[in-house]
Amino acid sequence: MKLTPRGPADTDVSQLVQNDKAVKSARREADTKFPQSGESTKIDIYEQARRLQRVAELARTGDQLRVDKVRQIKEQIEADRFEVDSKEVAKSIVRSEVAGLLEKK
């Protein structure tokens, strides 16, 4: 598992945000709400604030998930029950290397 300053790199936070229906609908609406030339722009700040609040809630949930996962791993290590899945480690290494190569381009 790759660790970053914010915790494990393979956390599910980004997946939670990406899978969240409110976030997806906000993206779709933002894409369709831009006016064509000559049209006026209407912004629903209340609705956007609710969506941002949902994203912030997902981020907090992700932090709690990370804390719970670290606590669980610590308990397993202390009880000599922690096992490393070599396939998952290999996948993480490959993901990390591919991401690094893509960032360089």
Describe, in plain words, how this protein is organized in 3D:
The chain has 105 residues and is mainly α. The chain has one domain (3-104). Helices cover 70% and strands 4% of the residues. The protein is built from four helices and two strands. The chain has a two-stranded antiparallel ribbon. Helix 1 packs antiparallel against helix 3. The longest helix has 34 residues, at 45-78. The radius of gyration is 20 Å and the shape is flat.
Main sheet: which strands, in order across?
Answer: 1-2
Give the structural class. Answer: mainly alpha
**Low-pLDDT segments:** none
Instruction: Please give the largest β-sheet.
Output: 2 strands, antiparallel
Q: How much of the sequence is in beta strands?
A: under 5%
Average pLDDT score: 77
Using only CA atoms, what is the Rg?
20 Å
| Strand/helix succession | EEHHHH
Shape: flat
Number of strands: 2
What is the end-to-end distance?
25 Å
Number of individual domains: 1
Helix content: 55-70%
What's the tally of helices?
Answer: 4
